[in-house]
Backbone:
């Protein structure tokens, strides 16, 4: 790995591409973000227009950080994508119109640096493995909890990609074969029980059951529910505990499948881990083989919003 | 890998250890079983007594095959076990009293050859990858269908072992979070819906629904149901189709998790694959993302009963 050649001063570019915002950074080989910026992705425009803005922003960040000669770029992006080809194959619904966009080639042409691409959940797993809860842990699963549920799986120190770079869609593993149909085609996906939509729906039910009036629909955001939980509202706290229990039911199966040492809850919803983790752990440890319990930990990500940039940087730093 | 050093005449010992029978063989580097034997495992006796018999039998097979200087042994055995330590950690309920038995050290001491151990489902995956449905396929899942459901997972060409060698318990992934409690602790495990017990139960129900008298309980074996299906009995055929559909529901999630190119149905129940595969494929392809469908195949194992010995031999042949 290039990062281990004894070049402590090595610095890379990193992009955390989302459907709403693009975050960019200049990151050192020891994981310091030396400069960063963000701009709206505005996916209605074409990929090339976006790439022009991204390349200009990255060059500006290099100047700002006073670093010359950056020669590697890492990109985390919504899947499905092809790691091997460096192409966004089918990044719907996040990036409509970008199907087949050769993002790596486009940025390499503009920056003169080789680019590596992986999906945002895999990049999150790299970040956790490098600087987060997974330091020194070679078998771990990172679940990114948000509008959807993504996952990155590191097995024996290596990201699991599968046949066509689509491994790790753990959000679309079913916990209920008769459950509601999901966009993926499956029924009863854990994403349907533990996404932000489910959280809001469950909170409304809990408020009603508690006989408390409902706030206007637009005011019931995951963050508002989190603040209510922090303020001690039972309905909000129970909402996160229920979500944590559903996650636990899925994680029990993931533990049997992958035998990880660590499962990390990351992403927006994991901010509320303090209200979920106890419930998640209880369900998981109730539902797995004794041999799978040995050494197993379930933790919240400590990395926060920097996770995406750090993981993308790690991708560039560990390029073969 | 030692097997690739250009030693076409290389030959290894193989053991397929089951709770009922122990199969042993002498296998060439090109996958021919040069000699084989079997004896009852009789687990009430201690491991050392068994190891004496196994070592004597392996020496006899080497003489029979007229091969001198065998210096590697592969063992497939029921888990949980420790691959790294070569120890049967907790092989219940198959081998009661053998907990912690250092099977590799015991056989190495008796045979003067290094021994490698892995669990029977992992060994099945090695066999499929080497000589079966998985030749040339580097991302595959092998499900061994029998009294229980085991699995071996090969990801990017390597067996997935996990943190403590207990990865691949796909039989204990749930398809129903409110389902019946399984011995493993989980609820609604696919094993509860597609094991031989479930098959027999489902056949009794189907016979009753068809208004046909039930045979004596002892006569309803999976093999008898298979023969009935072959003879054209609708209740028997539907029994396998239902089992195939349940397997499909689980496999859909496994495909999202691992993105394999191939899923192989192996083990005793897979003999009846002709009555299951169409149903399994239909459910899987109905329940997965379009990107996961590309190139995906679901097949029955072509290896039959030789699978265990061949996989154990492969373990020895690919020793680092």
Residues:
């Amino acid at each position: 790995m290039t990062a281990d050649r004894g070049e402590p001063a090595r610095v890379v570019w990193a992009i955390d591409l989302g459907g709403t915002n693009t975050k960019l950074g200049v990151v050192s080989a020891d994981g310091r973000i030396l400069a960063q910026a963000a701009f709206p992705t505005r996916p209605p425009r074409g990929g090339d227009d976006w790439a022009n803005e991204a390349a200009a922003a990255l060059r500006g960040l290099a100047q700002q950080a006073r670093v010359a000669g950056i020669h590697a770029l890492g990109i985390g992006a919504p899947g499905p994508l092809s790691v091997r080809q460096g192409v966004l194959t089918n990044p719907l619904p996040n990036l409509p119109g970008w199907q087949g966009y050769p993002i790596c080639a486009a940025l390499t042409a503009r920056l003169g640096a080789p680019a590596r691409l992986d999906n945002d959940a895999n990049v999150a797993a790299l970040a956790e493995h490098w600087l987060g809860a997974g330091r020194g842990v070679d078998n771990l699963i990172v679940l990114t909890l948000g509008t959807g549920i993504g996952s990155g799986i590191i097995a024996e120190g290596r990201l699991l990609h599968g046949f066509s770079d689509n491994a790790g869609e753990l959000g679309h593993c079913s916990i209920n074969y008769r459950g509601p149909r999901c966009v993926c085609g499956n029924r009863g996906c854990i994403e349907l029980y533990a996404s932000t939509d489910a959280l809001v729906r469950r909170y409304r039910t809990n408020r009603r059951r508690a006989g408390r009036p409902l706030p206007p629909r637009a005011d019931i955001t995951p963050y508002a529910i989190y603040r209510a939980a922090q303020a001690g509202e039972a309905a909000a706290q129970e909402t996160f505990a229920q979500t944590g229990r559903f996650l636990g039911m899925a994680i029990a199966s993931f533990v049997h499948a992958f035998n990880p040492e660590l499962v990390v809850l990351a992403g927006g919803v994991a901010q509320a881990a303090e209200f979920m983790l106890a419930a998640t752990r209880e369900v998981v440890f109730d539902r797995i083989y004794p041999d799978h319990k040995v050494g197993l930990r379930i933790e919240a990500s400590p990395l926060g919003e920097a996770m995406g940039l750090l993981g993308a940087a790690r991708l560039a730093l560990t390029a073969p």
